[in-house]
Design brief:
Structural class: alpha/beta
Oligomer: single chain
Shape: globular
CATH superfamily: Glycogen Phosphorylase B
Largest sheet: 5 strands, parallel
CATH class: Alpha Beta
Strand order of the largest sheet: 3-2-1-4-5
Strand content: 15-25%
Length: 121
């Protein structure tokens, strides 16, 4: 049995916002040094997120289709992201993205806690 904490960070787009969100990584690593940290992001910022120290895994989705597409396109894009995270349970989900679609999707809600990081300031 694996008792490693699993943390999911969701920040889909905006390079500057992703950099700002990355500042939480040292605190997460200090609190849970052995945690497995996954970052869900858009393809546009994935190269940057892959450079962040402390990230174990980067899962990408097409943020343009999710944020600007029609409802069927958004649903299909979200389904792909959910499939990429299928079967995983997270102890903590840090939502650094205000899109209600992301915040209310059950696979992106942690079994422990979901936190909108904009409310932590």
């Amino acid at each position: 049995m694996n008792d490693r904490h699993r943390i999911l960070i969701i920040k889909l787009a905006a390079l500057g916002d992703a950099v700002m969100a990355s500042t939480m990584l040292p605190a997460l690593r200090e609190r849970w040094p052995d945690a497995h940290i996954t970052w869900l992001c858009g393809r546009g910022i994935a190269p940057l997120v892959n450079c962040f120290k402390g990230i174990d895994e980067v899962v990408t989705l097409d943020e343009r289709r999710l944020l600007a597409g029609s409802l069927p396109v958004k649903a299909a894009t979200l389904a792909v992201a959910v499939a990429g995270l299928a079967g995983r349970a997270y102890d903590l989900c840090l939502v650094a993205h205000k899109d209600v679609t992301v915040q209310t999707t059950p696979p992106f809600q942690a079994s422990g806690h979901q936190v909108d990081i904009s409310e932590l300031a």
